[in-house]
Design goal:
26 strands; nine-stranded mixed sheet; 471 residues; single chain; alpha/beta
Length: 471
């Protein structure tokens, strides 16, 4: 195996396909299993179609599609040609799509909904852009299929991923082949991922959790993946059973829905369950352990760095923490703010055409994550909150994440968001917005038992639903 971050994704994958073309690689309900040899051939054809349209290495290629084997074929073909893939959330509306198109200036796009293609073409203005459907591998003749593929170096860009844009307009994080391969190899080592594993993936492939961890990890390990178009608790349980899966990766909400649907026992045969993209509550961690015998591995990653930290496969999986640094990843806390600083082959080179943002994000080679953390005595990292979310109340620092975690444990709470509101007495007052059927007095009493006085919410507002962005 090549060293961390020293090779390209597609050279790794094509070497594995050449070694055993008969191995099953990708499954979806429409086409069944796709073998390694079939993926190699079809992705080569997809690359040929893109090349025939005039695309060359370095061009941006926007992709906005639901998970499918055809999407994987097109995505792999684009990377093999040296294109920079720009994944776009399928839930984005026209304004959000237009921002990405205007910023990334793609030469072509792949969409599975016709209306989205119209949005992209409109946002491109007078700039020519080719719009493709999912049949990339089925069009064209053998004469147009390029023979020279997989030429990208580790330092060449592979993905341009846009941040979720909770503060200001989304920025494009440019990730290289080396960044992505380093992270895939790190999690493979940490989680003992081999070609004999089989992953059920119900995550979207426009986000690094499903794409950079689920798909890249699968292909880099030479293992198979069972794709689901969306998450449904009964469907995931059935897929785990029918495909004799060994791995499941999800977000906390998926585990909640499995619990609500009384499907947690379906996780029992798995070798490993992983949770990420949002905090996993301690209570949910224990509920899954009790019901399914699975101690979920919680980990910590982000768009700019893929995977950074994980609870150990062998050793204590400590609920409420994200664990220990992954192989090759260096983590430290800023002395003044406890902001998590990151360095390693997984860390991106910078934001697309954002020199001011890059100057702010990097110091002496360390990337400032914006997350505030704390290490315990055994070196396990806990995410305390976001640096910009800090509330200063009565001269004390309050991190909303800590207060939210406490309030989520109260009866009737579905979710909660804590913010600071200008207050003449406190400077900022801690205020909680709560989704669920709760008694405000009981909720405040719950917090008073578990939080220092300055951290306790001064007011509680019940809301029908908390606002959420597309991620």
């Amino acid at each position: 195996m090549e060293g961390l971050g020293t090779g390209s994704l597609t050279r790794r994958w094509s070497s594995l396909w050449a070694a055993d073309g008969t191995r099953p690689v990708v499954f979806d309900d429409e086409g069944g299993w796709l073998s390694a040899a079939e993926l190699e051939d079809r992705s080569r054809r997809a690359a040929g179609r893109l090349a025939a349209a005039g695309l060359t290495a370095g061009d941006r290629f926007l992709v906005s599609c639901e998970p499918s084997a055809d999407l994987v074929v097109a995505y792999v073909g684009a990377l093999r040609l040296g294109l920079v893939v720009v994944p776009v959330n399928t839930a984005y509306r026209e304004r959000e799509v237009a921002h990405v198109v205007g910023d990334a200036r793609p030469a072509a796009a792949l969409v599975d909904l016709g209306g989205r293609g119209t949005w992209i073409r409109t946002a491109s203005g007078e700039r020519p852009i080719s719009i493709f459907g999912l049949d990339l591998a089925g069009a064209g003749d053998r004469g147009s299929v390029p023979t020279e593929l997989d030429a990208s170096a580790a330092t060449d860009p592979a993905l341009l991923l846009y941040t979720s844009g909770t503060t200001g307009a989304p920025k494009g994080a440019l990730l290289s082949h080396g960044n992505l391969l380093a992270s895939a190899d790190a999690v493979a080592m940490a989680w003992r991922w081999t070609a004999e594993d089989r992953l059920v993936c119900a995550l979207p492939l426009f986000h690094l959790h499903g794409l950079g961890v689920g798909l890249h990890g699968t292909l880099s390990a030479g293992a198979p993946v069972v794709l689901r178009r969306s998450f449904d608790a009964a469907d995931v349980a059935r897929s785990i059973r029918d495909h004799r899966a060994s791995l499941f990766f999800g977000v906390p909400t998926m585990y909640v829905r499995l619990a609500d649907a009384r499907q947690l026992d379906a996780l029992r045969p798995l070798r490993l369950c992983v949770s990420g993209s949002a905090p996993l509550s301690v209570d949910l961690h224990h509920e899954v352990a009790d019901a399914a015998g699975q101690r979920i591995i919680e980990r910590y990653g982000m768009t700019e760095t893929v995977m950074n930290v994980s609870n150990p496969y062998d050793g204590e999986r400590r609920a409420g923490t994200v664990g220990l640094p992954l192989p090759g990843v260096h983590v430290r806390l800023d002395e003044g703010t406890d902001e998590i600083l990151l360095r390693g082959p997984n860390v991106f080179g910078g934001y697309w055409e954002r020199p001011e943002a890059n100057a702010e994000a990097f110091t002496d080679g360390w990337f400032a994550s914006g997350d505030v953390g704390a290490f315990d005595d055994d070196g396990y990292l806990t995410i305390v909150g976001r640096r910009k979310d800090l509330i200063i109340s009565g001269g004390y620092n309050v991190y909303p994440r800590e207060v939210e975690d406490v309030l989520r444990g109260a009866h009737g709470v579905i979710d909660v968001a804590v913010i600071g509101v200008a207050d003449p007495h406190w400077g900022e007052a801690v205020v909680a917005f709560v989704e669920g059927d709760v008694d405000s007095t009981a909720l405040l009493a719950h917090g008073a038992e578990r939080l220092a006085p300055y951290k306790r919410p001064k007011r509680v507002h019940q809301v029908e639903a908390l606002p959420r962005n597309a991620l």
